[in-house]
């Protein structure tokens, strides 16, 4: 069967049954198992959350006054997230000491462009509805940005993402975040190096710049003092599509290429930006998607 077991609300045992999918049913069973074995120490809580969400990188922050912030990085369904955050007034499936309150912080997708559309389209939409994109269009045969083969195809043209011209709060990061881009270049063999994207503040200053180079390296830089010039030997070859992801956990900013860690740098400061821009160059670039996640 495609369905898992039957779940009834504890507060309405005579109500209609609710069928959950197999993954959610296993999720609930794992929570029940860990509730029976956890010792509710801080490490015990971390181990319990890791076990429930099938990760190894969950953490907790003691906020004072018997209150915890629990961070996890799993991708959960809405129902699984509901169980994790707490069953209404009944309490969470996370085993916690008596009289300890908590909040859940997780990486949530706040910007998502998939660049789907008819060839030649000069508009595109953030599927989560938090930002807008501008700058698409055809200026000339050598200056353009439009949808082609369900990708953003551009040359000598900036594409700017913000809040209808204003800074977007979803593009500033005081905590953990991820910026993931699937990209390739038609003319990669002729590219020495160029900026792929920038995060900018209201004054137009570059808060964080990511540049790619034909020798396989990726360079991170900032003019606002966020970090020193950092070059990572990433082994990229953007003649064909690769996924480049920049992710911060705590104060560690890490670069991944096709989900493989390539290097890290310490960045303990807030990324006070508000505007994202795909940079311009004389080389034809395809972007399959842009996905940004933020700790909420």
Short structural summary:
This protein has three helices and 20 strands. The chain is mainly β and 296 residues long.
Structure annotation, total helices: 3
Largest sheet composition: 11 strands, mixed
pLDDT averaged residue by residue: 89
Order of helices and strands: EEHHEEHEEEEEEEEEEEEEEEE
Please report which band the strand proportion falls in: under 5%, 5-15%, 15-25%, 25-35%, 35-45% or over 45%. Answer: 35-45%
Globally, the shape reads elongated
What's the Cα radius of gyration? Answer: 22 Å
| Helicity range | 10-25%
Overall number of strands = 20
Structural class: mainly beta
Unreliable residue runs: 7-12
Task: Please report the distance between the alpha carbons of the first and last residues.
Answer: 36 Å
Structure description:
This protein is mainly β and 296 residues long. It has helices at residues 22-37, 42-53, 78-85; strands spanning 3-7, 18-21, 59-64, 67-72, 101-113, 132-134, 137-140, 143-148, 151-155, 159-162, 177-185, 193-200, 206-213, 217-221, 230-233, 242-249, 252-257, 260-266, 275-278, 285-295. Helices cover 12% and strands 43% of the residues. The strands form three sheets. Strands 3, 4, 5, 7, 8, 9, 11, 16, 17, 18 and 20 form an eleven-stranded mixed sheet that branches. The protein is elongated. The chain starts with a strand and ends with a strand. The model is unreliable at 7-12 (pLDDT under 50). Helix 1 (22-37) packs antiparallel against helix 2 (42-53).
């Amino acid at each position: 069967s495609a369905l898992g077991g039957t779940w009834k609300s504890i507060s309405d045992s005579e109500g209609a049954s609710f069928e959950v999918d197999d993954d959610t049913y296993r999720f609930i069973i794992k929570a029940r198992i860990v509730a029976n074995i956890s010792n509710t120490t801080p490490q015990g809580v971390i181990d319990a959350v890791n076990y429930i969400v099938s990760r190894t990188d969950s953490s907790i922050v003691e906020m004072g006054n018997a209150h915890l912030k629990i961070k996890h990085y799993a991708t959960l369904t809405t129902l699984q997230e509901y169980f994790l955050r707490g069953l209404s007034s009944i309490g969470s499936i996370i085993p916690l000491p008596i009289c300890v309150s908590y909040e859940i912080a997780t990486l949530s997708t706040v910007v998502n462009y998939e660049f789907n559309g008819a060839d030649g389209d000069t508009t595109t939409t953030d599927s989560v509805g938090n930002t807008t994109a501008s700058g698409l269009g055809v200026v000339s045969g050598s200056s353009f940005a439009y949808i082609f083969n369900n990708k953003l195809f551009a040359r000598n043209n900036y594409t700017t993402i913000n809040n209808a011209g204003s800074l977007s709060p979803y593009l500033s990061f005081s905590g953990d975040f991820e910026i993931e881009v699937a990209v390739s270049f038609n003319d990669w063999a002729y590219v020495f190096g160029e900026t792929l994207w920038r995060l900018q503040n209201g004054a137009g200053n570059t808060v964080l710049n990511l540049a790619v180079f034909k020798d396989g390296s990726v360079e991170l830089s900032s003019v606002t003092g966020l970090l020193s010039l950092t070059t990572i030997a990433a082994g990229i070859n953007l003649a064909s599509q690769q996924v480049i992801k920049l992710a911060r956990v705590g104060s560690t900013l890490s670069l991944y290429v096709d989900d493989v860690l390539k290097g890290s740098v310490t960045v303990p400061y807030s990324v006070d930006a508000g505007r994202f821009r795909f940079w311009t160059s004389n080389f034809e670039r395809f972007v399959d998607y842009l996905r940004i996640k933020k700790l909420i």
